[in-house]
Protein backbone atom coordinates (compact mmCIF):
# COMPACT_ATOMS: atom_id res chain seq x y z
CA UNK A 1 0.00 0.00 0.00
CA UNK A 2 1.35 3.42 -0.92
CA UNK A 3 1.82 5.96 1.87
CA UNK A 4 2.69 8.88 -0.40
CA UNK A 5 5.53 9.89 -2.64
CA UNK A 6 8.57 12.12 -2.37
CA UNK A 7 8.28 15.43 -4.21
CA UNK A 8 10.61 18.38 -3.65
CA UNK A 9 11.91 17.20 -0.25
CA UNK A 10 8.49 16.40 1.12
CA UNK A 11 6.19 13.40 1.30
CA UNK A 12 2.79 14.23 -0.18
CA UNK A 13 -0.20 12.30 1.12
CA UNK A 14 -2.93 14.78 0.14
CA UNK A 15 -3.30 13.09 -3.22
CA UNK A 16 -4.24 9.79 -1.61
CA UNK A 17 -7.94 8.77 -1.81
CA UNK A 18 -10.29 10.22 0.84
CA UNK A 19 -8.09 13.25 1.51
CA UNK A 20 -9.62 15.58 -1.06
CA UNK A 21 -9.47 19.17 0.16
CA UNK A 22 -6.62 18.50 2.55
CA UNK A 23 -2.87 18.20 2.06
CA UNK A 24 -0.58 16.72 4.68
CA UNK A 25 3.15 16.67 4.11
CA UNK A 26 6.34 15.96 6.02
CA UNK A 27 8.95 18.64 5.24
CA UNK A 28 12.34 19.88 6.26
CA UNK A 29 14.41 23.00 5.89
CA UNK A 30 18.14 22.24 5.53
CA UNK A 31 20.57 23.66 8.08
CA UNK A 32 21.16 27.43 7.66
CA UNK A 33 18.47 27.71 4.95
CA UNK A 34 14.87 28.89 4.64
CA UNK A 35 11.77 28.10 2.64
CA UNK A 36 12.35 29.46 -0.88
CA UNK A 37 9.92 32.41 -0.67
CA UNK A 38 7.21 34.11 1.37
CA UNK A 39 3.85 32.83 0.18
CA UNK A 40 0.14 33.03 0.95
CA UNK A 41 -3.08 31.35 -0.16
CA UNK A 42 -6.47 32.73 -1.16
CA UNK A 43 -8.61 30.14 0.59
CA UNK A 44 -6.37 27.65 2.40
CA UNK A 45 -5.35 27.79 6.02
CA UNK A 46 -2.21 25.99 7.17
CA UNK A 47 -1.03 24.34 10.36
CA UNK A 48 2.69 23.74 10.93
CA UNK A 49 3.84 21.32 13.64
CA UNK A 50 7.56 21.66 14.42
CA UNK A 51 9.03 18.18 14.89
CA UNK A 52 12.70 18.89 15.58
CA UNK A 53 15.21 21.60 16.41
CA UNK A 54 14.46 25.34 16.23
CA UNK A 55 13.85 28.07 13.72
CA UNK A 56 12.26 31.40 12.93
CA UNK A 57 8.73 31.58 11.55
CA UNK A 58 7.41 34.69 9.85
CA UNK A 59 3.75 35.60 9.41
CA UNK A 60 2.87 38.95 7.81
CA UNK A 61 6.37 40.34 8.47
CA UNK A 62 6.27 39.39 12.17
CA UNK A 63 9.07 36.95 13.00
CA UNK A 64 9.10 34.68 16.05
CA UNK A 65 11.10 31.69 17.32
CA UNK A 66 9.66 28.18 17.05
CA UNK A 67 10.97 25.06 18.77
CA UNK A 68 10.20 21.35 18.73
CA UNK A 69 6.52 20.83 19.60
CA UNK A 70 5.34 24.27 18.47
CA UNK A 71 2.06 24.41 16.53
CA UNK A 72 1.41 27.41 14.27
CA UNK A 73 -1.88 28.09 12.51
CA UNK A 74 -1.71 30.53 9.59
CA UNK A 75 -4.86 32.12 8.18
CA UNK A 76 -5.47 32.43 4.45
CA UNK A 77 -3.97 35.53 2.80
CA UNK A 78 -1.22 35.82 5.46
CA UNK A 79 2.34 35.75 4.12
CA UNK A 80 4.48 33.06 5.72
CA UNK A 81 8.04 31.70 5.63
CA UNK A 82 10.28 29.49 7.80
CA UNK A 83 14.04 29.29 8.37
CA UNK A 84 16.40 27.25 10.54
CA UNK A 85 18.54 28.69 13.32
CA UNK A 86 19.49 25.54 15.18
CA UNK A 87 22.22 22.95 14.90
CA UNK A 88 20.19 20.56 12.71
CA UNK A 89 17.73 20.71 9.81
CA UNK A 90 14.23 21.79 10.86
CA UNK A 91 11.64 19.03 10.34
CA UNK A 92 7.94 19.85 10.38
CA UNK A 93 4.53 18.45 9.56
CA UNK A 94 2.37 20.66 7.36
CA UNK A 95 -1.41 20.48 7.03
CA UNK A 96 -3.32 22.62 4.54
CA UNK A 97 -7.08 22.72 4.09
CA UNK A 98 -9.58 25.07 2.55
CA UNK A 99 -11.20 27.36 5.10
CA UNK A 100 -14.96 26.91 5.17
CA UNK A 101 -16.68 30.28 5.16
Describe the structure.
By secondary structure, this protein is mainly β. It contains no helices and nine strands. It has strands at 5-7, 10-12, 22-29, 44-50, 54-59, 62-67, 71-74, 80-84, 90-98. The strands form two sheets. The protein has a six-stranded antiparallel β-sheet, with no helix packed on it. Mean pLDDT is 81; it is low at 1-8 and 14-20. This is Cupin.
CATH architectural arrangement = Sandwich
Quick one: overall form? globular
Question: Order of strands across the biggest sheet?
Answer: 1-2-3-9-4-7
Largest sheet: 6 strands, antiparallel
Radius of gyration: 14 Å
Average pLDDT level: 81
User: Structural class, judged by helices and strands?
Assistant: mainly beta
Query: Using DSSP, what is the number of strands?
Result: 9
Low-confidence stretches: 1-8, 14-20
Percent of residues in helices comes to under 10%
Number of domains: 1
Q: What is the terminal separation in angstroms? A: 35 Å
**CATH domain fold name:** Jelly Rolls
The number of helical elements comes to 0
Beta-strand share of residues: over 45%
CATH homology superfamily: Jelly Rolls
For the record, the CATH class is Mainly Beta
The ordered H/E elements are: EEEEEEEEE
InterPro entries: RmlC-like_jellyroll, RmlC_Cupin_sf
Protein name: Cupin
